[in-house]
Amino acid sequence: MKLSSLVLAAVLFAPSFAVAQSANPLTANAKLQFGALTGFVIRSAEKVPEDLYSFRATPEVRSMAELFGHVADAMFAMCATAAGSKPPRTGIEKAVTAKPALVAALKEGVSYCNTVYDGMTDQKGTETVPFYFGPTPRLSVLYFVVTHTYEHYGNLVTYMRLKNIVPPSSEPAKPGQ
Questions:
Q1: How far apart are the C-alpha atoms of 145 and 30, rounded to whole Å?
Q2: What are the structural domains, with CATH classification, of the chain?
Q3: Best label site of 27, 60, 84, 163, fewest CB within 10 Å?
């Protein structure tokens, strides 16, 4: 096996090994997925020029600004549900349209969710809370945040491709990544 193959394997599997060694591997894995994905979403919000924030792929769908706002709203709402509290912020999708404010709202949503992930354990994650589909384990709500964000990152990828913007998840890795 070449040295470059060994280095690649170490980079790909080191985070999984660290999660497996955690006292709360399910929670640690959910947070790992959330962090990777939200990094792409924030980089997308930063990368898309503000004049494209009003772009809609078709008249019936959300604009880019509304998608970013919807993702931020969902982070606050779902992470608050998992924590058993009220969302600290709502209404972003309908009220916030400026790029700097949306980037800030996304970062704030990620930070808030990270505090919820940090306070979660696998044991606490089995407790149920009211959710869209009925009583749901707290940790399942946190995994749904990841699922929901992936869904809308997919929308954003399509929008970016339509405007000839390479999505962050398709960019070549930079040295040190």
A1: 9
A2: 30-169 (1.20.120.450)
A3: 60
pTM of the model: 0.86
Amino acid 84 reads G
Contacts of 167 (CB under 8 A, 6+ apart): 40, 44, 156, 157, 160, 161
Other residues' Cβ atoms within 10 Å of the Cβ of residue 65: 24
What percentage of the chain exceeds 90 in pLDDT? 84
Q: Which two tokens stand for residue 23?
A: 């006292």
Burial of 8 (0-12, 13-18, 19+ CB in 10 A): exposed
User: Where would I find the beta strands (DSSP E) of the chain?
Assistant: 128-129, 136-137
